[in-house]
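Here is a tokenized protein:
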Amino acid sequence: MAKLYFHYSTMNAGKSTLLLQASYNYRERGMQTLLLTAALDDRAGAGVIASRIGIAEPATAFTPRTDLFALISEQGRDCACVFVDEAQFLTEDQVWQLARVADDLGLPVMCYGLRVDFRGQLFPGSAALLAWADDMREVRTICHCGRKATMVVRQDDRGRVLRQGAQVQIGGNETYVSLCRRHWREAVGEI
């Protein structure tokens, strides 16, 4: 039975690396995969899943209006697995569409994304995946103190921690820092 999976973490935990590695493992065994990524994140180019360690693969970009069930029904007929990067940008409807892909088309769907934003709030796509995924796996990364990082802060160009702003701002190592909850609370002034 195919399942809907959610692999979640903070920034810089290696989620895209794991996605690309898992897709490669399928292809190495002669099975096709379908890679999807949010059109919103074009840091590596439109429709590209890229890892900080330098590996990348082309992917089909989706927007909040994309019907993922229809897209996968058409493009993923010969696929053994569907991989979704930047899953936090999915809508609730799209998460249901991915559940239907697993349930009705019999294709495993592996979603990779952030759990919470810099304010400690769930992303809508992540909230839906946490509620409806068949299997959830945390991708671990560490805080500067050595504890597990579960939160992230956003910094301005001077390194100051921001407490307000839009939930979505595409950026990377220069913008976000992963921290344990205690150090996140300290950074945002909660301690």
